[in-house]
């Protein structure tokens, strides 16, 4: 007696989502207030008013929402603010990633300059900084910028919660038909081979 193997296929589709950037990702990538103050003091850069930046952006988003209140319904306001806050968070995250790369380059250059046998990493002529020093200063500038954008993003997220009444989450877009383009291309190549 032979048995036929029965395969059951589920008719439900697995939907893949493209993950958005979260505020937590920004916090991991960008310097916090204490680190930004240390960078400012160590490199002679201006000390930012972190709380002021955060509060200003929070107020800005809330006032914008108030002015649009009569023209937008609740759902439209939520969608609009979702996009606005997403832009702030995405910008801060990009700055944080750029800062991280700048720090890595500064560390590499500084480690290389500690090797006395390397002539190309020695200090430049009098009045000019070494390449390693320039990279450290550039990383410090990027750190201050990333911190400022982090504070703006935190203010925007706080404003979203105030206006909408729930915590902000990044929009997760469904990946439309993953693999379909590969299948379509394969079919076109196969048909071309057939003549």
TrEMBL record:
* Source species, domain of life: Bacteria
The protein in question is named ArgG
- Taxonomic path: Bacteria, Pseudomonadati, Pseudomonadota, Alphaproteobacteria, Hyphomicrobiales
């Amino acid at each position: 007696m032979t048995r036929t193997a029965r395969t059951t296929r589920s008719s439900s589709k697995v939907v893949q989502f493209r993950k958005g950037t979260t505020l937590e990702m920004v916090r991991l990538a960008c310097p916090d207030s204490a680190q930004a103050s240390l960078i400012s003091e160590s490199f002679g850069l201006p000390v930012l008013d972190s709380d002021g930046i955060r509060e200003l952006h929070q107020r800005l988003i809330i006032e914008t929402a108030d002015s649009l209140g009569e023209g937008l319904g609740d759902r439209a306001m939520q969608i609009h603010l979702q996009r606005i806050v997403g832009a702030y968070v995405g910008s801060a995250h990009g700055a944080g990633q750029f800062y991280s790369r700048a720090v890595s380059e500064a560390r590499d250059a500084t480690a290389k300059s500690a090797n006395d046998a390397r002539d190309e990493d020695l200090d430049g002529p009098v009045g000019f900084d070494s390449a390693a020093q320039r990279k450290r200063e550039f990383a410090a500038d990027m750190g201050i910028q990333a911190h400022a954008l982090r504070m703006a993003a935190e203010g925007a997220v706080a404003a979203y919660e105030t206006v909408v009444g729930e915590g902000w989450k990044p929009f997760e877009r469904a990946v439309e038909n993953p693999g379909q383009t590969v299948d379509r291309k394969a079919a076109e190549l196969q048909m071309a081979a057939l003549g």
